[in-house]
Amino acid sequence: MPKLIECVPNFSEGRDLAVIRQITDQIETVDGVKLLDVDPGAATNRTVVTFVGEPEAVIEAAVRAGRKAADLIDMSKHQGEHPRFGAMDVCPLVPIAGITMEETVQYAHQLAKRLGEEVGLTIFCYEFAATKPERSNLATVRAGEYEALPDRLKDPQWQPDFGPAEFQARTGATAVGARNFLVAFNINLNTTSTRRANAVAFDVRERGRIKREGHPLLGPKVTDENGKTVWIPGSLKCVKGIGWFIEEYGICQVSMNLTDISVTSVHEAFDETSRKAEARGIRVTGSELVGLIPLQAMLDAGRYFLRKQKRSTGVSDHELIKIAIRSMGLDELKPFKPEEKIIEYMIDETAGRRLVDFSIRGFVEETASESKAPGGGSVAATLGALGAALAAMVANLSSHKRGWDERWEGYSDWAEKGKACYQTLLRLVDEDTAAFNAIVDSWKLPDATEAEKAAKEATVQAAVQRAIEVPFEVMQVALESMEVAEAMAETGLEASVSDAGVAALCARSAVMGAYLNVRINAGDLQDETLRNQFLQQGADLQAQAQEREQRILSLVEGKL
């Protein structure tokens, strides 16, 4: 797996699209980097850019973007609602795949050094990349914003980590960091009062608000025995937030950074803000996602809101995402396009080219063509996926039958199990074809020398084993899906009992069809012990599927 990191630079320009485009064009000049999102804001006068790639390429792209921003943005003329202190205001690196946070910190320091030495920016390192504990919090690093930089840079405690130590009026300063995935999430309010929006933000953000004696706004600050200001914490951990008015929308928002969505999720932040706003006579009308969000966060939100309705959560990812969008009003201010806002969808280079992305007609016609793949293995996996989906459908229908309200959760669990099965089987549709192609490719390897012959044979045997493992997994998962079909034939909606029967027939056929693939590919496996193990276990799985099919069909016949 390649090392992948995400870079999310924020530039202090959100109104001049020509300037923004020149900066993002620099990112796209670097091979191996994919520009995922460009999100300008007129009121904030700030653009959040997101791109991803292998570390060296990402660092080069960030340096080029920082250089162009330094050429085009003059901080001495900048005004905007968002806190800021530099042309390239912040530039965090985020580990995505195949890389640790410790490694990401090292790359952040490389980036910071290059921006300081090659571009001439004043650099402070923050979050995990901070060189001093007091610099870990971005708000502390950026305290006083651009206007405070001239005096701050004279303080020996606030000398930059890299780059010029004297104030640069044009470019200001840049914070380079390494952090966990951050979700920038704005919640829309039906008020134009920034003071009231801030009050809601203080209610929920982790830092909360300053404690005061007497009047909550005008009273003197409360200090502890060390003379430090006492704060009343808000209700949400790992949340930063402020309230602001957005001129282009004519509303106020609570603008949040969710710094660890495993602690406070997007849906929890939305609901808690709604509760706090309502307590102040304010209504939340929707929300806005700035930048990208992980797929799992959207799926978790969809399940959360379905569970609040006592509805089955075993529906498709597409449906879960739709529920999340509508429940949080993510499309109130502008369209929310999952393919452009969910990070996994943005970096999926195979989307649209997989067999499972074909139309039914396209898949059938591709199967019927003269190409040797897709073949029986992919078709068996498809049959299994259809069977598991049918079983999940019966569970979903049963979960909201009138009069069965108290049983919805049990059916939801069955639907979730069916969904997990069909998602795995869909993945195996393409993996079976890939395994076959790997065998074909291995046959083409050179074998002129003894060393080449040995290497070729090892590659062939590894490919053969994989071509057995894939249909074997199809057998296992298709058999597992029959548990759902049997449960639905026994206790599910009687009007859909025939669907449970068809699900069983599909699953049994998937098991038997996949076993044929196991057997034919096992003939080329030289490891006799392993070959016999696959064949014996496969025969057992086939027998179990045939026995379970008969049991399910008996249940179905009894209700027809």
Describe the structure.
Strands 1, 2, 3, 4, 5, 6 and 7 form a seven-stranded mixed sheet that branches. Strand 11 (239-246) and strand 12 form a beta hairpin. The protein has three domains: 4-178, Formiminotransferase-cyclodeaminase, Chain B, domain 1 (2-Layer Sandwich), CATH 3.30.990.10; 183-347, Alpha-Beta Plaits, CATH 3.30.70; 355-559, Formiminotetrahydrofolate cyclodeaminase monomer, up-and-down helical bundle (Four Helix Bundle (Hemerythrin (Met), subunit A)), CATH 1.20.120. The chain has helices at residues 17-28, 55-72, 101-119, 138-141, 145-152, 194-204, 266-279, 295-308, 317-328, 338-341, 343-347, 360-368, 376-399, 408-443, 450-491, 497-522, 528-559; strands spanning 4-7, 10-11, 33-41, 46-53, 88-97, 122-127, 173-178, 183-189, 209-210, 231-232, 239-246, 251-258, 284-290. It has 17 helices and 13 strands. The longest helix has 42 residues, at 450-491. The protein has 560 residues and is α+β, with helices and mostly antiparallel strands. The chain starts with a strand and ends with a helix. The mean pLDDT is 94. Helices cover 52% and strands 14% of the residues.
